[in-house]
Structures are given as structure tokens and as C-alpha cells.
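REVIEWER CHECKLIST
Item 1: Sequence provided? yes
Item 2: Single chain? yes
Item 3: Sequence as submitted:
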Amino acid sequence: MRRLFKKTPSNSYIKTETKGTEAQPEVPQGMWRKCNKCGAPIYSEDVKAGHYICPKCGGYFRIHARRRIEMLADAGSFEEWDAGLPVSNPLGISGYPKKLSELREKTGLDEAVITGRMSMGGHETVVGVMDGRFIMGSMGRNVGEKIARAAERATALGLPLILFCCSGGARMQEGIVSLMQMAKTAAALKRHSEAGLLFISVLTDPTTGGVTASFAMLGDVILAEPGSLIGFAGPRVIEQTIGQKLPEGFQRAEFLVEHGFVDAILPREESRQTLTRLLAFHERMDRGEEQKAEDWPEAGPDRQGFAEPAGGEETISAWERVKRSRKQGRLTGLDYIQGIFTDFTELHGDRAFGDDRAVVGGIAYFHGRPVTVIAQQKGRNTRENIERNFSMPSPEGYRKALRLMKEAEKFGRPVFCFVDTPGAFCGMEAEERGQGEAIARNLFELSALKVPVLSVVIGEGGSGGALALAVADEVWMLENAVYSVLSPEGFASILWKDSKRADEAAKVMRITAGDLKALGIVERVIPEPVPAGKKSAGEICERLAEGFEEFLARYGALSGEELAAHRYERFRNM
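Item 4: Structure as written out by the authors:
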């Protein structure tokens, strides 16, 4: 006796026993299916209970739109919009209306997208979910219309918008009209964005063509399910065009994260939790009106923990400060983020080329208030330093930081930057991708950013590579940090033709925290009871947190225009 999985017209698999030529059903039709990735037999109820993920190989099955809404929405909260729009056949193609009618009957859908309003974890949102069963989720006039209307109503209601994308692209049966839906949806999302509202795009398998080239890639936050195919041109088209076999993993979700176009991979079982957290971060509270200075502790120049280090400059040489700023085991940007903020959610990529691991950034809470945090990140060991390029950012790192800061401005979030770099990466590829332009663009945009910005030099502040994250309302330094136009070694080499005189150069350059406080370059020096490391982490983070409260009290009450004017004057007077 042998067991078979016999395919039926309904695309389900029936388990049977064979005796000679006679086959008898053993399990009711539809209870067993075959994974289209690993080929293993799987029990349908296990798949449904497991978020439509194969329990054998972890492969993702495509989810019907209504089922996805059920998995995400608070019970009974979903209200569908714009169902039953009249059939659109702009080219008058024979048989097209009939095909649509048949699909409506077969799938129970009126089009390739369902839109409406729902709550998730108690947070109201507008949602749109595409369904690949309807002409591969292609975008014709009605799909574009439903998405545009959803964006418009979200704008009118002051609600965020979440779109789950699954599409083969523009619908060829509707010709140029389908192409126009790309512009229409983008225009509606532009108005939604200008209203200061959140748009989350979730890319599922597949997201291609005109959908990729329009609303799918316009999210404030872009997430992707593991392994999803994402691209403008399909793999077969590319291979036929260039005459080459594409590499493994090309155009998959993980490839998009690596190349800077997607913020993070979204495991399906974590979808509700992650999306709820993002909605909470961005929930409209009109913070500029509600969280005035009186909501925070009184500001004062002499708060405990911010006195200048007594006698530090007399007893410790500038060169010793340089060595301490570079010392292995010194606290890194991520250490401060984890020690001061809560619920840090890292976002990746510059949306243009790549994700630079020398720069870490995302959203977090500071004492219950959403903020944006960005850090130049050194490794904690040699392997991590190599992965982080020794915290020397490339152009995509600066562009990622700027993207996050502009999003912070849109949503009214204060920005905290942790500066720690020997300088911007000076490799050939960095020059090819516009290193100078990327740094200049940061200086240009940060000078007028309309939210509070505080930068803290926690280790090395090397030249323009550091300044690109330090055009702030205030700049603070840890006691053993340094901030300079170039390294002491470089200074000595250029000025005296002898890099061995670096210790002498460090003193001449006036690069220590005390020097720069006296010069009016930085506003505060944060004492280090012992050089910043694991033993002193709690004390230093507590001091910084106290200072951050004061900073928000002082600058959180200012309007965007006042903040930009203050920042302009700060640097204008240097």
C-alpha cells in the first residue's frame, strides 16, 4: 500500500489509499494541501492557525484579503468602503466585463482590493488590502479609484493609512487608463502626507510593475513579508532583456532591505503587534499643542550632574582624551539608545541605494513621548567594527539619517543624535555615490528642520562626517569625547609633516569637551565618573536623560519657525 496526494480541479489535495486500481478517499477534500515551496503534505487547519505559513519549511502562502483583515482588525471593527463600483472597460475589450463578472462570483470580491476603516489594538486606521486572486491584483481604474478614495477619506478623517500590496502591476486590459492610476494614487498620497499623516506600505508576494512604481514605494514606513518578490520589471523580463541569469535572492524582500528600499522585514505572525506599535508611535495627539514646557521639568542651567568636570583639563591631557574616545569597550550609540529610550524600532535604508550599518536610526519613546533617534554606530568588537565600517558612514548612511529626520519633522518628533565617527568614509565608491553632496544636503536641511534637534558627541567627532549629524539646537559632549576638523595624526602630518607629533597636535587643536565649551561650540559637557563603559553606563544615561528633559522643556515650547531661526542664529554667530 502506498499513499498518494492526488491533485483535484479545485487545487486541493486528497489523501487516498490505493489497492490495485481502486482509489478510495481517506480524508475529506480540502483538509490536506501540498506546500508549493517544499512539496510537503500539510494539514489545512494547521496552516490557517499558523498565519498561513507552512509548518514544515516556513514558506508563506498568499492570504485572501478578507482573511488578512480578520487577522489584523479588532473584532467587529472593520467597515468596508466603496464596494461594488461599476465595471470599467475603457478600451471596450470584448469579453473583459464577462471575465470580471466571473471573477467576482468565484472570489467573492468586486475588485483586486478591499478598502475600509478599522481599529487595530484600539488605534483607528484606514486600510486597503490587495488580493492576487483577482487578475493577479493588477491595478485598473477601479483599483486606483478605491485606493485614491481611501487616501482622501483618511486625509479628511485625520487617520493613518495602511496598504497591503500584492500585484502584477498595471492592468493591460485597461491600457493607458490603468497607467494613469499610478499618478492618481500618488497624488492622493501626497495630500495625505502633507496633512502630516502616516502611510504604512506592506509589500507582499508579489509586488511588481506599476504598483511598485507608485503607491507601494511611497510609505513613510515600508515593510515587506519575508521572501516576497518586489520589483518594477519581473525577473523573466529582466533575464530576457540582459540575457543573463539573475542571482539567487534578487528582487526578494531581503534584497530590498539590503539595498535601502525597505525599512524592515515583517514576519506575518508579528504583523498585528508591529503595526499596532507603529500606529501608537504616530497617533495624532497634536503634541505641539498638548506638550508645552509645563509638561516637562523646569529647565535650569545648574541641574545636578551637569557641572563642569573639576580640574579635568589640568590633569588629563588632550591626547589622553583622544585615546579614551577611541578606546575599545567605550559605550556606543546603541548602548545609549537602549539605556535612555524604550521600544526602539529600527528603520533601515536611504530609499535610493543601500542600508549603511554605520548609521543606526529609528523611532523610540522618551518618557512616553515618541522621538526619533539616530546614532553613528561603532562595533563592540573587531567583527562588528568591520560590519559597521568602523562607524565611517557612506552617502547612504547620511541619506538614511536625513530621511528619518524629515519624517520626524513631518510627525512633530524631536530628534536625538549620537555622534561617534572618525570621519565620513573616504573610499572610491563613496565618492562615486556623492559623499560630499550627501553631507552638504544634511547641513542644508537640518539648518531649518522644524522640530527640536539635540546632538551628543559620545566618542569621536571627526570633521564633516560628524557635523552632518550635529547641526542642532544644542550640541553636548561627553567629558572624554573629542570633536575636530580632522584627526590629530592628520593635523600633525599636514602641518608639521610628522604624524608622530599627534599628541602635540591634540593640545594645539583644542578638540576636547572643555576646550569646545569655552569656545562656545558646545553647550554642555557631560561628566564621566569613569571613562564611559559598562560600569558607568547607568549613571551617564541617567544624567543624559535628565538633560534631555530640560532640553525638551526649553525647545519643545517653540514653534517650528522659532526653532529654525534659533538654529540659524546659533551657527551664524560662530
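Item 5: Key structural point noted by reviewer: Residues 1-28, 286-314 have pLDDT under 50 and may be disordered.
Item 6: Recommendation: ____
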